[in-house]
Amino acid sequence: MKKRVRLLPFLAPGLALYLVLFVYPTLTGFYYSLTDWDGLSPSYRFVGLDNYVSTAKDIVFKKSLVNNLKFMLTVVLVQTVMSLLLALRLAKQSKRNIAFRALFFVPTILSSVSVGFIWTFVYDPSLGLLNGMLKSVGLEAWTQNWLGNADIAILSVAAVQAWAHIGQMMILFVAGIQAIPNELIESARLDGANPFQLFVRVMWPLLAPAAAIVVSYSTIQSFKAFDLVFTMTGGGPNYSTEILSTYIYNSAFMNYTFGKASTASIYFLVLISLITVLQFRALRTDRVSD
Amino acid sequence: MGLAACGSTGNQGAAGSTAGPGNAASNQPSSAPSAEPVTISFIHWRGEDAKVLDGIIKKFEAENKDIKVETQVFPSEQYQSTAQAKLLDGSTGDVFTSFPGAQFEAIAKAGLFADLSGEPFISRFTPGLIQAGQKDGKQLAIPYQLVYNIPIYNKGLFEKYNLEVPKDWDGFLRVAETLKSNGIIPIAFPGADIGPGQFMNPMVMNNAPDEDIFVKLEAGAAKLTDEWWVKTLSQFKELNDKGYFQKDALGTKGDAAIALFTQGQAAMLATGSYQLAGNAAINPELKQGLLAPITVPADQAVFEGIHTTTFMLAVNSKSKHPNEAKKFLEFLSRPEIAAEYANGTGQNVTVKDVAYTSKELQIVAEWTTKKTRFQPRFTIKNAEVQKAVLGSIQAVLGGTDPKQAAAQAQAIVDQQIGK
């Protein structure tokens, strides 16, 4: 106990930052969620849980939530599978693999606003690179109005979100693969395991901790996405790409319902915490040793 | 949780404040001359005008040695979030700008506009063009720019195919058909961003000639499911179904639509007069004009077009230097300075007796004598209602039946107005 008390001064700076940058804004957000503050006026009223009820009933909020789930599932699925495949291919230490890893990592370091603008041009239905490429290889029937078609717009943006962060996830898997003892793989091979069996029986259980991190990180990142959606579609057409973060932004800064936006933020926080806890439980790393 | 962090900033004005927000300036006037020059802050969103405004500011500072103007420019989206929050403590934005509509209403409600009624320089503006800055009988802001939110058309292409500016809906469809049959895209429509918000204005102006129609919508006295809006949506659908917009219009952004128009592939551009100068810069050979689709028979047309007055100049009620800020507005309102701004930026202004030198500004000046109405979109005070209205246009262009799209949008409107 005494030892812990002695450690407190060392923890204080971090704790102070945590209190100021997370706990205080969260509590303030909760406080405003109980008011009808417009974000500018000097006065406001306490409205109790009214914002929680009206937000839960809000058609646009519900649409945003559904869109966010679609967006998240697409990103997590694409990102996890693709980054794992890339990691399996590029895990071995060689100059060529290191170069490729760096190449796949580049989008991660670009600002998402820039990525959004670039992909808006790529997706342009008439002048864009994507439709142009499809046409040039005789796949004109596959061309799409990628961001203008309400049925696929959210998937188009999700694909960009996945692309932009695949490098990051790949590195996590690469680290996981490199941590697997070589002897285990060699033994499995000597026992006659084919590549599929090697992966499923030996590598995947040992990669579970990395997978848990990738899936959780990807979930949180895709749930919090804002810049890409904002720059690429602004939530349109007709709310088809409206997600929780754009809903919150619009409520606060376009519609001047700061109290309601704070309520949506609280819902957002609860939801993302819940999903993260469920994921960690589902991908519990101690199962490896079960 | 970033939102909550912003909230804490806002708390400065919020926590138990009982003083009227407009009182701060009057409590701390700074009319007394001081040895140190006073620096006033000017914030706005028009980065493209920065060079011209910098030149004007230099002249102002030369004339007023004791005043310095510090400018900050924010992109328009950022202006909505970051800049307006900065107004709250009075340290930024002694002079600031506002959009008409939802933003103007919110800032007015927060009491951040200093009352400019009775300032002598107000008389330099065309009275009918500065109404968007008035509320409760007070002049809270002065719209500086005058814009016509109606399509630009390529006069050369119209002459080539012997087309005249149509006076009714059938005529508009005939013109579009002729252009299409000659391989020209009738209307370049930037459906992915500004298109619906711009083109809805002339499309609805004669279908609902009541200038308060959207005010009534927000009051629950009119509905999007009524004939005036369903007809407007049906006409959007007709234009789209007949191929009078470019293919995949909903995926086309402003730049791409402008490219189609300036390259002569499209005969009309569904934006507004603010784009005339930009088009001319891209293609100096273009002969441009403005036209509005008349969606009714000619004898039922009440309006010829749409106008908007925006880039509303205002003084922060919490400014510590209100007199200096007003001096700056007085300077901007001088016809010769307004002319310098207009001709330098390619934007018409609301100041009277301004000499426009460019061809594009003269095109707009011609429209000042026509019967136009204030942009309907900006009469919608609730941004979510505005979004629902625009969303119904996008839904129709995406294939939804106009009645269904109108009903879906009305459900959001009902929710917003608490019906």
What secondary-structure arrangement, pairings included, does this model have?
The complex is a heterodimer of chains A (290) and B (419).
Chain A: H1 2-33, H2 50-57, H3 59-90, H4 95-109, H5 112-123, H6 129-136, H7 153-178, H8 182-190, H9 195-223, H10 227-232, H11 244-254, H12 258-282
Helix pairs in contact in A: 1-12, 2-12, 3-7, 3-9, 4-7, 7-9, 8-9, 9-12, 11-12
Chain B: H1 2-14, H2 23-27, E1 38-44, H3 50-63, E2 67-73, H4 76-86, E3 95-98, H5 102-109, E4 134-135, E5 138-139, E6 142-147, E7 152-154, H6 155-160, H7 169-181, E8 185-188, H8 195-205, H9 213-219, H10 227-241, H11 254-262, E9 266-269, H12 276-282, E10 288-290, E11 305-315, H13 322-332, H14 335-345, E12 348-349, H15 359-366, E13 372-374, H16 383-397, H17 402-417
Parallel strand pairs in B: 1-2, 1-3, 8-9, 11-13
Antiparallel strand pairs in B: 3-11, 4-5, 6-11, 6-12, 7-9, 7-10
Helix pairs in contact in B: 10-16, 10-17, 16-17
Primary descriptors:
heterodimer; A: 290 residues; mainly alpha; globular; B: 419 residues; D-Maltodextrin-Binding Protein, domain 2; 2 domains; 7-stranded mixed beta sheet; 4-stranded mixed beta sheet; 17 helices; transport (chain B); SBP (chain B); Bact_solute-bd_prot1 (chain B)
